[in-house]
């Protein structure tokens, strides 16, 4: 278990999934999404993969895009990973549930313990789960229900799992993220602030909170690739497409800021937390 | 007791209750009506109440008692009428022993009980005592208002006790003998038995009987000892701890199994017998308060026992873990018990002897072994420490779960832990109420209520109700909450509510040491690490079975020199009404019940009995009425129909909304450095950044003593100094209301009042007492909690959220004096602020962190801390030196000692008078306290950022207590010198000397 919070962001691998053309066409599950520039989206996705591999030094696995799964690139919704355990989610949207298969296989191949939801009544989008290093918060949103959260608690028994009501059409992770082991980063919208207050009330641990002008900027990734003790990175959007949050993010002194942008992918509901899954194959070393 | 009897009595009870309901006489009326049940109750109350009340009431009693000879009856000689009364007793008991006996005979019985129960004894003779206590008090008040003539008859306590015992025996006999007979017949039999019984009782007075106790220890072995029958829980607990060679025992407790699912903690302050009722004397030794940071425990042996407890918790599933954690913890267990992994030796060990998880798989065992190999070189103690380091982070570590339903009937669990109350639905945490958030805890019937502080944007406090499976469960939860709050959050235990004014509900308070105190005490442990064997529970039980030695403590037996005690082995339960010690305070805590009460409870109302027991505590100390107020509030609530109450309850979702507004506990170092806006860092008030040096010398007393004394003092009501915070006025009107209420609830609802308990968290930090007056109770606790947390946390220091009243230094001193025994002279020196740049290591001071209030200063105003206090203050002080004196105090007389207080302030010129508007940012605040033999040093370290420059101020307070011989100048000089030595790079900016002299030395 290590020092509390130390486990946050430990990773050796990152998993992404390519952007299919169907994402731009608005077909399938993506129906109703605003049209987006496919080329730009794919470019953003490529840059993200590049930063994960080159800047952060992670082993990058890229699942091939599948046209039948327009939202396949948002694989953050398909699994919750902590330590050596991966809980395979059961996305709210039935159309998205096939997405988990490829992810499951990949995680299994990486040696993780796979846990299935196994409950027809449970729905869980992975991006409704925030792991702080010491505990889990599960957003009860449009996509995730109580039963889904319960299974998270059942799966990760070492940790407190608290539920946080999320208002509006957002996942919890699109409102807040971790800027460090003890720092919660949150947007400034009402929904985000409400969620943060709820978390503050529910936690036994003291967290600082950093408020950013943009909610989307709060969806950042605190990552500690490599060996323990290696300097952490913060993958964020403040430098690129959300410049307003740049200044605030620079208050995070102990991390190396790595800006990326995904404004085009965002139109499909994507954020950094949904575009990649990170894991460590040596979680306890 | 035979079950037959029980059932019969129940039926009767019910009928009685019905009758009582029909009458519904108000207490006042009842009071005048001698034969009325309520009058009995009143009388009881009177007897239990303070002596003065007693005296007043006694005349009335005599009136009521048609038989004037009753007063005589109190004497040891048993007059003929006594027999009569006994017969009555029988009737009453048989009738359902519910205290609500409609028949006049019953009334007389209770009267007797009343007389028997003297305030000094503090026991409440009637079985209802607990329940009745509140009522009694109410009645008392009413009487006073009405100015009814009341007379107190001098009663001989021993005789009374004897009588009670006799009565008890009779009751038992009756039950056994005549379960099926008619009431009349029973009565006769009783009468005949009486004579015999009486004789027996007198004989028994000189003998004491013992009971065999069995305690299952954490390693699975059983400890057996003989206990004097009336022994309190503490006695057994101490024996067990002695057997275990355990010094840090405050984290532990004894529990007994009331039913397979229900486990009760044995209250150390009460007689074991009372708590057990009919249950066998079987106990288990368990961790009661899980130390949040086990590494702070002083002794390895303590950690070892904690490990054993946790292994049990894990194996039973009470402490859920992931597979990996099961394996890791299991591997540390192996390392601790088997030593380094040895392939050859390992083969001989069957891992199925160990239980690493609720369901143990081969895979898990393999993983355990794999990890075990990596622990090579760890000593058993180190392995235990590692075990604890990992176990303590588990989310359910130290969480005591209670099943309940929310206001919407949804199944939830309430988890009581060090930080507060957690609400779980299934495994999910859906709400959390940190102690600072909770203003009041109460229960009524099977409902459990918490009143929570209004959220930031709300104006009103909200009360949240939970439905427990039954009344006992609600009460158990309430007690656990009270205990946890006190243990983890307060610096010293709460004073029990006083009996003088009307209060409803249980007076239960945690009476043990708080975590802060036990830590303090632990630092004084000075012995070589005790040797002990580590054995896994399973194997231990195999090996050691039958090797147990029964220890009979002779001294114990001697202890109970009181009037004889009747033994009824095999006959059921005999309740003793003897008060064991002369110390009034103790007595209060362990009130005795009347025999018939036991019977009743044993049969039908088990639930009520506990309540009653607890209520007996109400007799403890007078003066603290804060509870009264609230109980009145609660009364209003409780008067409403249950539906109303439920309506009041906020739904869980509402709760959540409320809690959105709450703030996390700040971890200053992290964010302050980064200048991140905290969720909410509450920095209120300005505090002085001064170094206070208060010297306190005690007469030949050691630091440890002060602690102890403090605790004891809390049990009582004492010092005027602390008085203002504690004294609440009860308005007559309210009293009436409550009284009437109680009368109304004569039968069915009678128990309701008793069934509720209130607990309003307060903080006893001396500095905070003033503020308590204003009902800002929780503000203070938050400070306290921070202190505690800080202790557990990294030494680096964490800033308090809230600045304590900076002015309080003087008061603090005074109050401390009160606490300290015989403090003729007091001198406190406040040394002015030390200025320095940023990082300054205070850790190198050998001071230990203890639960003192930290002063967080935003505005650095080095001026006048003590100056708010007039230079000379005449203070009334209560001086308590030892047990004998204490007794006096607890009864009535409060010794008043005149004291003189002087405050002198030296200010260094270099201090700039302080721009008040200069608001710095608090970096850290830290309080460190160390006790040496004759001095107490408290250091407040405050780091602030002011205009980009960080500044550290250290405020050191040294309290020296001693007689007038002390050379104050020298002491002051010494203090300043030491301060300079400790912080060579800082400057002394201010010195405040606060000197208190006892004017009236004659007392000594």
Automatic annotation (TrEMBL), chain A:
GO molecular function, one term: hydrolase activity
Record's keyword terms, sorted: Hydrolase
InterPro entries (alphabetical): DDAH-like
SUPFAM superfamilies per UniProt: Pentein
UniProt keyword Lipid metabolism, yes or no: no
Active site per UniProt: 171, 276
Record keyword Transcription regulation present: no
Stated family: Belongs to the DDAH family.
Protein name in UniProt: Dimethylarginine dimethylaminohydrolase 2
Organism: Pipistrellus kuhlii (Kuhl's pipistrelle)
